[in-house]
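Our preliminary data section would be incomplete without showing what the modeling component actually yields. Below, a chain of 269 amino acids is followed by its predicted structure, encoded as tokens that our downstream tools consume directly.
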Amino acid sequence: MARRTDGGVPGGSRRSTAQTRRRRAVPAIALGAMCLGIAGLLVMLPAVSDACQPVPATSDFSAEQVADAIAPGSDVLIVGDSYTTGRGSYDDVHGWAQDLVSERQWDATINGYPGTGYVNPGRGRSSRAVYLSRIEQRAALTPDLVIVQGSQNDWLTDSATLEKTVERTLRQAEVQWPDAVVVTIGPSAPQPRAEATTGINDAVAAGASAVGVPYIDAIDGQWFTAMNSGSYAATDQQHLNDAGYLYLAGKIDAELEQLATQPDGEQCL
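Predicted structure:
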């Protein structure tokens, strides 16, 4: 399965071949029995937080549309920062995106550029490197699925500005590719870096919600904790190592699968 990778250079592109890698009596006695029955029933019922609850729809896409978009062979565009590039991996160019593309057998354009974000243009300081510009530059593509990842690099941007920029960026993706499913992934740094990205996470989540784009929230899901971060963090403690990226890819894969299988208007809280 072919995989197209930008290699961290805005506007650039190169092709490479990815190999598929795989992967629940008396009244007193009667009353006591009734109490026992109720207690037993309560034990059997899942906690509210573990059950799927009807909620207002927050996404413009049906489960069926998502299922089609994530199917093997789908055309996928992934836009992100150094996590999408794979910095911290054994070769610095093999991260969660490459793992997920290989697992899902997608025909993907992986557009990762270190240091960038919705607002942050990275070291080059070029406006062409922010997510909105990079999405606009790829208008000729016809993706079934668009994934926008990040961005912990927007830590110097105030929440109101970041939220508005996220909304504008994701809305552009929806207008540009009206038949594509658009999904965004928030900051996914290991601890202790994750603690500094909660404000970013809230702003990106709010921007995605305003557009009706599904938001994959690694912080709310507690994917990276004080217990597991030591095993998943790269030597710089800012990025992930190979095991961390593989773990992140698996988490994202599970979230996409849930979006594709849960009934419309129902959400697992």
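Residues 242-261 form the longest helix (20 residues). The two ends are 35 Å apart (CA to CA). Preliminary results of this kind motivate Aim 1 of the renewal.
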